[in-house]
Amino acid sequence: MRYFGASLVGRFARRSVFRMPDQKTRGNKPGTKMTNAHKAALAAGRDEARIVKAYLEALASVAPRKRGRKRSKESITNRLSVIAKSLPEASALNRLQLLQEKANLEQELASQNVPSSVDLTAARKGFVKVAKSYGDRKGISYRTWRAAGVDAATLKDAGVTRAL
Question: Are 127 and 37 in contact (CB under 8 A)?
Answer without folding.
Answer: no
